Design the sequence.
């Protein structure tokens, strides 16, 4: 866990000898993915499962879920940059989960790497390292050369041993859903992390109100395995609906028992709908590749606010934008947001005919910027008075009809020819007027912008007097 571009994926690349960075948009890991590695520790092979959690701030929800599903965290800090905002957010997620953690100082091979400075950076932020006043173990590493990586894995296993982590393989499997997805051939699949017990074929997995018969089990590499024990990541297909990412899962020995568990969850009363008051609504339908992405997008959308408008997610789903999505959007005047998924050609044609906007994104912060723009456009415009200055009347020289010739003193701002003005006496508004002439040093001018005395002719029906206040203003549409 840690800041964007601090080398999390590169570190995992070295550990598992597989490149996952090149194909990821913007270099940001946008899903929680699980991988197993074997490390020789004290003469014996030990397995470690890594949950690769996103580093970008927008994926805090995913990152928090990863910490809750994990036993130990590795907080990654680049040795050439030190602590960054997402570093501390990752640390907060670790602290909230209550799990032990190890610090990895990455990019030690870079010219700008300075271990002492990086150590000082984490100490300044309340992360107290071993040997430096605290008990948090750490290792300097290079993902290019591999220097320090064996020592880091040794620290992880030592931390696990000190935490006395254990599982009972005799129990039925339980754990968390990391992510779920859907494709035409396999149907609905989900990546699970087994926290306790043993997952076996012939049983049924239940996550929330979703369930699946465990006909076969795939490991992280896609190979079929007979069973899976504690800390193993697996993929199960054949779910009757998308199991929510981050949801605990349990196993049942029969379909009847599984249906009972799922029904109990489904019968729980739904939370009351969010109230938007009299705000204008921007309806959104979210389509993404996996449920974890939908969760992260909704987390990001919740942060976009406007005093006169609000975003409302009226639909969500996994996979490419289809005709039904377009029809739903057309019925509710909604915008479709497609994140890392395509649009079926028939749906694209239908969207053009029905006037439905489909906004496609590969990067979460591009989505954020565009939704902020759309929300601003959806908000009803209002006209407000914007004060541009203030003047005090010193003397009334003449009154002809509705025109008043006067001398005044500019106290602040500016006053221009043609300005609308408010007229007030001792804080009580008298009415409105308009500046039809301005003089300074006995010469006609278009604007008074230097504080001091000036002459003016104001058109107003109000009976103004010495000591009254003139407040020029502009009408601004927002």
Sequence:
């Amino acid at each position: 866990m840690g800041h964007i571009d601090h080398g999390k994926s590169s570190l995992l690349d070295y550990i598992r000898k597989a490149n996952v960075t090149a194909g990821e948009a913007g270099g940001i890991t946008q899903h929680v993915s699980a991988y197993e590695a074997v490390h020789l520790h004290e003469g014996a092979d030990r397995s470690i499962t890594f949950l690769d959690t996103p580093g970008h701030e927008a994926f805090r929800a995913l990152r928090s879920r990863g910490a809750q599903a994990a036993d130990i965290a590795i907080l990654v800090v680049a040795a050439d940059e030190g602590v960054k905002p997402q570093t501390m957010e990752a640390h907060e997620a670790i602290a909230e989960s209550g799990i032990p953690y190890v610090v990895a100082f990455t990019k030690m091979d870079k010219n700008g790497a300075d271990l002492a400075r990086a150590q000082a950076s984490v100490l300044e932020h309340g992360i107290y390292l071993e040997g430096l006043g605290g008990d948090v173990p750490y290792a300097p590493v290079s993902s290019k050369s591999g220097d320090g990586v064996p020592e880091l894995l040794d620290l992880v296993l030592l931390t696990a041993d000190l935490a006395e982590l254990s599982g009972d393989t005799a129990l039925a499997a339980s754990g968390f859903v990391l992510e779920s997805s859907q494709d035409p051939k396999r149907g609905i699949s989900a990546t699970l992390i087994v926290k306790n017990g043993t997952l076996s074929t012939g049983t049924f997995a239940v996550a929330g109100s979703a369930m699946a018969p465990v006909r076969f089990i795939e490991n992280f590499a896609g190979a079929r395995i007979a069973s899976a024990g504690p800390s193993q990541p697996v993929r199960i297909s054949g779910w009757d609906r998308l199991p929510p990412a981050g949801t605990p899962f349990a196993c049942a020995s029969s379909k009847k028992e599984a249906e009972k568990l799922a029904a109990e969850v489904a019968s729980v009363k739904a939370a009351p709908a969010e109230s938007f008051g009299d705000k204008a609504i921007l309806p959104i339908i979210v389509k993404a590749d996996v449920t974890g992405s939908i969760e992260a997008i909704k987390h990001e959308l919740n942060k976009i606010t406007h005093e006169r408008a609000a975003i409302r997610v009226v639909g969500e789903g996994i996979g490419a934008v289809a005709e039904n999505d377009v029809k739903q959007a057309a019925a509710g005047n909604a915008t479709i947001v497609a994140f890392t998924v395509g649009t079926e050609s028939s749906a694209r044609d239908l969207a053009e005919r029905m006037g439905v906007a489909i906004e496609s994104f590969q990067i979460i912060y591009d989505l954020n910027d565009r939704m902020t723009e759309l929300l601003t456009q959806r908000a009803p415009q209002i006209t407000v008075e914007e004060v541009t200055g203030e003047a005090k009347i010193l003397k009334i020289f003449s009154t002809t009809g509705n025109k008043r010739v006067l001398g005044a003193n500019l106290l602040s701002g500016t006053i221009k020819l043609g300005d609308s003005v408010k007229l007030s006496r001792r804080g009580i508004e008298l009415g409105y007027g308009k500046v039809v002439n301005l003089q300074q040093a006995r010469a006609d001018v278009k604007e008074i912008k230097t504080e001091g005395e000036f002459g003016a002719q104001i058109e107003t029906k109000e009976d103004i007097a010495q000591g009254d206040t003139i407040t020029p203003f502009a009408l601004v549409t927002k």
